[in-house]
Amino acid sequence: MRALCWAGADAVEVRRVPDPELRNAQDMIVRVRRSTTCGADLPLLGGRVPEASAGEVLGREFLGEVVEVGPEVRRHRVADRVVVGAAVACGACWFCRQGLLACCDNGTSGVTAEPEWGQPSAGGFGRPARLGGFAGGHAEFVRVPYADVGAFAVPESVSDDRAVFAADAAPAGWYGAELGEVAQGDVVAVWGAGAVGQLTAGAAVARGADRVIVVDDRDDRLRMVARHAGVEALNHRYVDVLAELRERSGGRGPDVCVDASGMPAEPSRWPLTEADGGAALREAVHACRKGGVVVVLDARPGVVDRFPLGALTDKGLAVRAARRRGATAIPELLARMARDELVTEHLATHRMPLERGADGYALFRDRADGCVRVVFTP
């Protein structure tokens, strides 16, 4: 089959790779209909993930049609249209039983990053095999382990272009608001107007926030989130963000600050963001009101230097972080999509065939031509 693979630093290419096969009784095979680019791929594309090997299939977020099921799969049948959560979880370990599917002990493939992070990480699609990952969704077919846990039928009324964002971007954004415990009347600030940041802002509005302010350096993205989520926008190139946020929150600072800025492929491609990806996080800590909550979303390989620990402790802030939500929120999000309460297809600013994967990732990496996400069709 054809698949979009990592080909070394800053390069992707379409290659012929073996068709996936059922390996376990709980597996199923999905024919991909849509897949999207993801910010978690950017460190890999920039050569900043040493565990990656050339030839690994990319793609964290995808949607498709079931073509084969293992003998123990109960919830899905051939021809079902499904969206698949980005995290691979067994549904039975201690973490899964607590609802922490993204922390699953068993959903891994290959060697994990335990030496770096202290504990093994959950597996995921489109991540390097040495980090516990599985072949991704930028392909014609994908093997889905633990299919009854991580895959969900898509309502007939929900389009492919809308539903594909239920795989990871929408759960991550809604998890950001949940981790921040956004409540009625809160002031919420979100750093980053990519797909996850925009969906975090929308989730904060849905939870009753009084004001939601999104901070970014791209006017096109800020206009998009203001139009679709009905929130306020700040371009940090032109304003003093800390002063503006203080002014818009009654002099206290936002109740909840969410860093959804992600990690750039290379420092030079995100002006005002440093190599460690910590500039937005530091600003969020300084902006947040005393006793507030700072939430960190997205993949952050390595370490972040010059973290303002003194501000964190003196202000009594709570910090919560997550790489991904896991699949528990997907059914609710699909239901919201079916009721038009969650609209996401505008985030697919570019659509192209998988053969143009290199062009798509160049657009996404450079945020060129107003690109927020590229959706591929095999």
From TrEMBL:
Name the Gene3D superfamilies for this protein.
Answer: Medium-chain alcohol dehydrogenases, catalytic domain, NAD(P)-binding Rossmann-like Domain
| The Alcohol dehydrogenase-like C-terminal domain, residue ranges | 195-264
Record SUPFAM superfamilies: GroES-like (SSF50129), NAD(P)-binding Rossmann-fold domains (SSF51735)
Keyword match Zinc: yes
Its required cofactor(s), as named, are: Zn(2+)
- This chain belongs to which protein, by name? Threonine dehydrogenase-like Zn-dependent dehydrogenase
Segments forming a coiled coil = none
Give the highest taxon in the source lineage: Bacteria
Residue ranges constituting the Alcohol dehydrogenase-like N-terminal domain according to the UniProt record: 25-149
- According to its UniProt record, what is one Pfam family this protein matches? ADH_zinc_N
User: Carries keyword Transmembrane?
Assistant: no
